[in-house]
Amino acid sequence: MTSSRPCAACSVPEAASVPEVPLDEVEAAVRWALESGDDTALRILGYGEISLVIGWPTERPVVACKRLPPFSSRFAAETYGERFTEYLDVLSARGVEPVPSSFHIVASEAGVVAYVTQPVLEAATLGPEVLRRARPDPPRAAPRSPPSSSACSSRSSPP
Ligand SMILES: Nc1ncnc2c1ncn2[C@@H]1O[C@H](COP(=O)(O)OP(=O)(O)O)[C@@H](O)[C@H]1O
Ligand SMILES: [Mg+2]
């Protein structure tokens, strides 16, 4: 993520290349699902180790909205957002181009909630699928063991 502009809702820079999403609506739908136990109104793209990933718009998702666990304060969320953006910039500077990603803080009854938004990616391009298709590396020859000396062979012989 190289070009960025400030997010309208918070001071954290935002990637220009991720379409805007009404995250208030996404969060309201998530809250409803959490309270009712009914997630049928959500288009869930995946469950990560950290985030719940929701596709938006529901009928034909173009943006993946990654809901992070609630933060203890707005300051904590803003600090996380700044570090996250810095981290992506460092990756870019080192030649690892991350998926365009944009950090947003959303007001929620759950407290301070933040989302990372990204373009929806083809499932076939995601890491698990890439690994599933990959072939194992060809076996390498085992390192040759040093020639056995008479001392070794006599030690391994039964008394
Ligand atoms: N940009 C995306 N487009 C489509 N699906 C995604 C995207 N990001 C995440 N997912 C789906 O959500 C799952 C969890 O996402 P991941 O980034 O691994 O979350 P976490 O960082 O919380 O582990 C992925 O395995 C994938 O199925
Ligand atoms: Mg993951």
Number of domains: 1
Give the helix tally.
4
- Taken in chain order, the helices and strands follow as EEHEEEHEEHH
Structural class: alpha+beta
Count of individual beta strands: 7
**N- to C-terminal distance:** 70 Å
CATH class: Alpha Beta
Question: How large, in whole angstroms, is the Cα Rg?
Answer: 24 Å
Tertiary shape: elongated
Please name the CATH topology: Phosphorylase Kinase, domain 1
Would you kindly provide a written description of the structure presented here, covering whatever features stand out?
The chain is an alpha+beta fold and 159 residues long. A 5-stranded antiparallel beta sheet has the order 3-4-5-7-6, sandwiched between helices. The protein has 4 helices and 7 strands.
Short description:
With 159 residues, the protein is an alpha+beta fold. It is built from four helices and seven strands; from the N terminus they run E-E-H-E-E-E-H-E-E-H-H.
Features:
30% helix, 4 helices, alpha+beta, Phosphorylase Kinase, domain 1, disordered N terminus, binds magnesium ion, 7 strands, two-stranded antiparallel sheet, binds adenosine-5'-diphosphate, 159 residues, elongated, 5-stranded antiparallel sheet, disordered C terminus
